[in-house]
Amino acid sequence: MVDRRRPAEEGTPIARRVMLGTLAAGVLGLATAPFLRSGWDRAVSAASANDPTGLTGLLPSTDGFRYFSVAGSVPEKTAADYRLEIGGLVDRPITYTLDELRAMPQTRVVGDVECTDGWRVPGTPFTGVSLAHLLDLAGVRPEGKAVRFTCFDGVYTESLTLGQARRSDVVIALDMQDKPLTHERGGPVRLYVAPMYFYKSAKWLSGISVTEQVVPGYWEEYGYDVDGWLDRAA
Ligand SMILES: Nc1nc2c(c(=O)[nH]1)N[C@H]1C(S)=C(S)[C@@H](COP(=O)(O)O)O[C@H]1N2
Ligand SMILES: [Mo]
């Protein structure tokens, strides 16, 4: 089901700009006091986790990332209860545990992270299983032309054409910056599509389904480009 509410964090650009300006003043002060940073990060995480409006998506964290979630609260998944389901137009549907994904060959992709809102974290390493490898194991049927991603937040979805999904810089990431993905960053498993805007990189990934054609994802229902290339000339 597509949730047609317009989430506050990307829906009100003017209010957002004003609030960011206000917050920036406070953050600049903290930047010179490193011992305070972890306290700030904790406060931001706690506020984000409890905020049903999504407005705390506006709060910057000190590593350059901002927390985004179109869902008000997202359950945390551990290695014990995490599952990734692969199905749709494949010969061998399968469900993986986190340990099984960790035991597979790992690919490290270093790319820029860039949100359409303008914030950017250059040269960020993501490590995990190449999506092409998972698709090969499942055996894409001839009529399969695209891939649809679903998330255990119960709301967000994304999509890629099969050609995009098979690129070597698209990874089912378990680590970011060489550390296990935190819940805040979409762990234990998120998609990372290095050549595209970060909205393509679905957090809290729970399902990969091969489809006959591209099914527009959550933001794409609001007009975002299905082909979210960072280089607009591409
Ligand atoms: N499940 C889920 N994935 C998501 C989103 C979301 O709201 N829910 N937001 C997208 C957008 S617009 C961005 S910029 C990044 C933000 O990732 P971050 O919270 O780790 O910074 O996640 C993308 N993937
Ligand atoms: Mo974004």
TrEMBL record:
Gene3D superfamilies: Oxidoreductase, molybdopterin-binding domain. Residues 72-219 form the Oxidoreductase molybdopterin-binding domain. PROSITE patterns: TAT. Pfam families: Oxidored_molyb. InterPro entries: OxRdtase_Mopterin-bd_dom, OxRdtase_Mopterin-bd_sf, TAT_signal. It comes from the Bacteria. PANTHER family: OXIDOREDUCTASE MOLYBDOPTERIN-BINDING DOMAIN-CONTAINING PROTEIN, PROTEIN-METHIONINE-SULFOXIDE REDUCTASE. This is Sulfite oxidase and related enzymes. It comes from Nonomuraea gerenzanensis.
